[in-house]
Amino acid sequence: MRLLTEIAALRPAVLVLTGGDPLVRPDLFELAQHAVGLGLDVALTPSGTPNLNAQAIARIQDAGINRIAISLDGATAGSHDRFRGVDGSFAVTLAAAREAARRGLPVQVNTTANKGNVAEMPAIRALLDELGIAMWSVFFVVPVGRAAARDMLDAAEVEELFGFLYETGARGKFLVRTTEAPHYRRYLRQRQAETHADSPAFRWSRRAAPRGIGDGAGLVFVSHTGEVFPSGFLPLSAGNVRRQSLGAIYRESEVFRAIRDRDQLGGKCGQCEFRKICGGSRARAWAMTGDYLAEDPVCLYQPRGLAVQ
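Below the sequence we write its predicted structure tokens.
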């Protein structure tokens, strides 16, 4: 409760209650109602397990949570359940999305783009059209936890997927955004330069990535033990909310301050003219090189004036 009060004082755009599976926590709805009472905009990311049933969705809505985000990583039960490692997850996920839609509770779908499902993206999009979602958030692999470097798209595949996501957002059926791919903002700016800034395609895509929010810069992750990280994909602790205030950690820690100073970035990220709106994935740089200020290894763009080696 004290932490929620601290969070409310920071006036974030949104508070996401996540996990693991937050539905396992017995005081989830009490905490959610308290957060809503503090004026916070609360979202929830439940896992696709039998806990996510019609009764749970009703309680989610009654608690004042105004959006759920669920994971859909394939267009079929075979591909989704294989990636998630749990049989039946696909069916639970679709049933939950449809129940939420029936109740008027907005749904965000999170999809992890990887070597195994990139060819399925058009089919996944077609399924999302049917579900009537509010937003599609496409995650780009960071090799931490169960994810491995072999799952990552290479820089050329990432750039091709950006084109698909841009055109998807331009249709206006739902918003599209990326996670751990801040260079999508660079892609949007380049498309803006190619077309008129007020074109429908650019307006729809710009709504998904209006400014350079990323790991440690507009985003903060508090673990279940109170450790504070720049994001869930960058497990470099900057402090603990049991001993310090969240605001002090975010504003004053060395890790957060360094991440927000884009002039400290190394490699081509540090020389890129788009670094202020992008900054590269600090989590991916850390996972691949051990240096969270290194260049993002899956960006195809060559900064102006940087000689090709």
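The two ends are 53 Å apart (CA to CA).
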